[in-house]
Amino acid sequence: MIFDKIVTVLKAVQALTPDHSKQPLNYMHITNKSVGYLINFGPLDAAEWKRYILSKYIPTSS
Fold first, then answer.
1. Distance CA 38, CA 24 (A)
2. Domain ranges of the chain
């Protein structure tokens, strides 16, 4: 968790699988956070990352 606002999952695998993508979404639902990142440092040429947004947890101004 970054700044108590962003769910971050770090991996070091050759390739991300659908199961890897489920992990940040599950954490976001558990913590009611709207933003999450899945970052993979496994590929040798560059890091790969995915951003997730769950609009139902975005705070609305009253």
1. 7
2. 6-56
